[in-house]
């Protein structure tokens, strides 16, 4: 059996982060239910602080560190939601955040991270440059590095979204998440196993970044090479802490075309009148493109985030 | 004193339409509150059935008609939210709807009206052609014509949005609405006078379609000539039933530039992660462009609707 956070640790995380996060709404949509023939309960983490579920894990990690370890701040490298979440979590805790970002990151993301008071270090846009720059920042500042997903405190934090969803809706046949690095998916799988073992956990992944699908099928960790998808939150590969949890506790992983992701994203904007980012649309994309049949079933879907560049909407810029 | 619906009639309307509409959420946003220095409570009629508050008035009108009058259906001319609302209200009541639409109406609006089962009659896009075609349709079918706003049953229906808002948030200093034909504004003003007389009612109008502003200031009804604004729900002019109510019970009307409307619309999408149409953004536009100071105040804003063409977002197509 793999190592993983216990139910106690997840419930501790929920208690720890409660004052610092939103308990997000669960929404339904009759028109979408008709399209898929089942009943979907959308857990709206797009309404979460800093616009994504990432604040759950980041807050749990920052507030779990000993005073000694956290005193000199926290650090990470990220161009996405984890960077903003860590910056906000550090601000809530009154410590400094150092964020390494690729110099070509979108201005809106640089602004968000800076807006929460983090200090930004720019580097060339390669994984190696990001890791080297982070190592240097940690060395110089004494900050504690916090990984975006391959970390049990992060996983326990992300697990609290499913905990809330199961408290609100108790009779779910399936819970679906998008999958990238596996933090949200492994946390969700743990909460479901502990609280509602009959509920199946199914992750949905872009075809163009299908390392989790291939790793799950083959039973060994196969990182992505040159992943390409508009779901910019799902470009990362599973880690050595998330993969074993996914392998043991997730029931299935399905893949979704770019066209399916765009169709689902637009469907949620038009029918539900809410803004979600492409990554959040992947599970519904699996349903709308018939990768999974949920006829007659009750299905929870975690809408992972709502941070999207309104100047570059995929149905206007991408060939679907 | 003008004629207007009584509190009893508004409460009757609320009871009558309750099974057929959503009680919409009231949302707040810390980031926007910081920008304006007050506390805003957004009544989310963008989440309403058929995507706008219009279903309230249309349902009240259709369900108030005698069996004899409604038996041969209902009819209107509209290219917008009232057309879809009337089509859905007729469907809920099990009667036919006939909708006269200009032939150049956007496909998405034709689809919505047809999707609710209404029969569509196309005409050339002039007010005269629309009125003549409607008269002919009414003559041939025996359907009851239902005006989009200049009708006491419609006004009483639209008044129920403010009724719900005041039930949820009792200590509002101001309630703001966008103003076009005046159905929502006059209904809101009546509910506020009856339920919370100390609350001020302030309407916000696009500068490019400012007939209500000019009528309010001059004390006489001055219809718009060639109104131009991206707030496509607010191109209509006040009517002889809405104007007297607005004149007597609204505290002020402020006007907003196109730039201010676009800025507010984008702000709500980005910060609140919800989809609203340009018309719904006009009140916040007044605050963001300093047409009204709400420092330290509690302000309700009715977000009137969320029906927007996702292929033509104003910050991508208009020069702001």
Describe the protein:
Two copies of one chain form a homodimer. Chain A has 320 residues and is α/β, with parallel strands linked by helices. Chain A has helices spanning 7-17, 30-36, 54-64, 67-70, 81-93, 107-115, 127-141, 152-168, 183-195, 211-218, 242-249, 258-272, 282-288, 314-317; strands at residues 26-27, 39-44, 74-77, 97-102, 119-123, 144-145, 174-178, 200-206, 252-256, 298-303. Chain A has two domains: 7-51 and 151-317, Rossmann fold (3-Layer(aba) Sandwich), CATH 3.40.50.1100; 55-145, Rossmann fold. The first copy, chain A, is built from 14 helices and ten strands. Chain A has a six-stranded mixed sheet, sandwiched between helices. The first copy, chain A, is globular and about 55 Å long. The A-B interface holds A 25, 46-47, 51, 266, 269-270, 272-276, 306, 310-311, 313, 315-316 and B 25, 46-47, 51, 266, 269-270, 272-276, 306, 310-311, 313, 315-316.
